[in-house]
Amino acid sequence: MGIFDSINISASALSAEKTRIDIITKNMANARTTRSTGGGPYRRQMVVFEENRGKSFSEYLGRYNDAMNGKGVIIREIVEDDRPFKLKYEPGHPDADQDGYVSMPNVEMVNEMVDMIDAQRAYEANITALNSTKSMMMKALEIGRR
Fold first, then answer.
1. Cα separation of 83 and 30, whole Å?
2. Tell me: the pLDDT tens digits for 106-130?
3. Are 13 and 122 contacting, i.e. CB atoms less than 8 angstroms apart?
C-alpha cells in the first residue's frame, strides 16, 4: 500500500457518499410527484456501491490473492426501488383513476431521513480518516526534519 492510497480510498468514499446524498435528496424532493417523465409516479432510487477492484501489481506478476487492494469504492449503478406505489384516495386529483385513487411515489420520508443520516455519518467518518492521514503525514515530515 502506497503513501497516498489511504487518501485515495477516503476520496473515493467521499465521492460515493456525496452521490448517495444527492440521490436521497432527489427522492425526498419527488416524494409527492405523481407524474414523471416515464408517465407514472416517481420511483425511489438507490445507489449500489462496489469495491473498486483495480489490478494490483501482484496480479500482474501472477500471484493473485483476494485481499483488499486499496482501490476504494465505486458506484456500480443507481437502481429503482421495485416496491409498489402507494394508493391515496383523492377523487379531485388530475391523476386519479376512475375509482378516485392516485398512485403516489414509493418514497417513505422516514426511511429517506434515516438513509440521509447514515450517509452523512459515513461522509463525516471519511473526512475524519482523511484528516488523520494528513496529520500522520505531517508528523512524519516533522520527524524527518529533526
1. 16
2. 999 999 999 999 999 999 999 999 9
3. yes
Per-residue pLDDT tens over the stretch 23-46: 999 999 999 999 988 888 999 999
Residue 40 grid coordinates: 407514472
- Total domain count, the chain: 1
110-to-58, 77, 82, 86, 115 alpha-carbon distances in Å: 46, 23, 18, 15, 9
Residues 107 and 96: their CA atoms lie apart, in Å, by 19
| φ, ψ of residue 3 in degrees (nearest 5) | -70, -30
The answer as to whether 63 is a domain residue is yes
SS3 135: helix
* pTM of the predicted model as reported, rounded to 2 decimal places: 0.82
Question: Would you give the DSSP letter of residue 44?
Answer: -
Residue 88 lies in a domain: no
Q: Is residue 122 part of a domain?
A: yes
Question: Is 129 part of a structural domain of the chain?
Answer: yes
Q: What is the distance between the alpha carbons of residues 31 and 105, in angstroms, rounded to a whole number?
A: 6
Helix (H), strand (E) at residue 74:
strand 73-80
Range of the domain at 121: 5-31+45-80+107-145
